[in-house]
Amino acid sequence: MLDFASARYNMIESQIRPNDVTDKSVLQAMSDTPRELFVPAAKRSVAYQDEDFVIHTSEEGVQRFIMEPRVFARLLQFADIKPGALVLYVGAGLGYGPAVVSKLAETVVALESDATLAGHAGQNLTEAGADNVAIIEGALQDGCPDQAPFDAIIVDGALPEAPAALCSQLKDGGKLVCVIGQGLAGKAHVFEATGGEASARAEFSAAVAPAPGFEKPQAFVF
User: Fold this and answer.
1) Angle value at C-alpha 181, between 178 and 183, nearest 5 degrees
2) What's the CA gap between 171 and 174, in Å, rounded?
């Protein structure tokens, strides 16, 4: 049987620390979260590999992925989540991201558009004891305006462009972290709200799977 504790330790030491993640709270949160609980049972043996992999395929054929640990950890570090923070996690998946964030923030609102995933995420989070996470089902691109403003917003998956609707749900001084662009063109961005506007900066290259619902509508061609 796979030693998940050793796999988790190796993830921290061989994937995350060497990738410029130095925030002790992020390292501890990821060390304390059993990633294997948040992937399908058939894929637990690869739960700690350093790449995205499919965790769910909807009836419509939409695939959902769990983000690779090193990219996820760097995004968390740039989100700079403080104790007492209210955080929006966009794309809860099977609950891994919200579970990690629950160890950094006071309250996590985990938004998920797929009803099946939302149900499983709720069960997984309960099993993991993450009782400060609220699962909300809804369109990812809309965020959760009724719960806003947020101290931090994390988007799990790549976006085609800056998420203006989500940025508008930040508190003044709040940060949104996400990847913009597909494949090798992807760049992790940090958006920081100041005076009702969000300024952006690109931080590092990151190739992650797309987040559903943010696709640009196709232009009409004559």
Assistant:
1) 110
2) 5
- Burial of 58 per CB tally in 10 Å (0-12, 13-18, 19+): middle
Torsion angle of the four alpha carbons 84, 93, 135, 48, in this order, in degrees rounded to the nearest 10: -50
pLDDT in tens, 87-123: 999 999 999 999 999 999 999 999 999 999 999 999 9
Neighbour tally for 215: CB within 10 Å: 11
Give the sign of the dihedral formed by CA 101, CA 102, CA 108, CA 109. positive
Q: Find tokens 């939302």 and name the residue.
A: 118
Please tell me whether residue 191 adopts helix, strand or coil conformation: strand
Cα 167 vs. chain centroid, distance in angstroms?
15
Read off the pLDDT of residues 190-222 as tens digits, 9 standing for 90 and up: 999 998 889 999 999 999 999 999 987 665 555
pTM value > 0.70:
yes
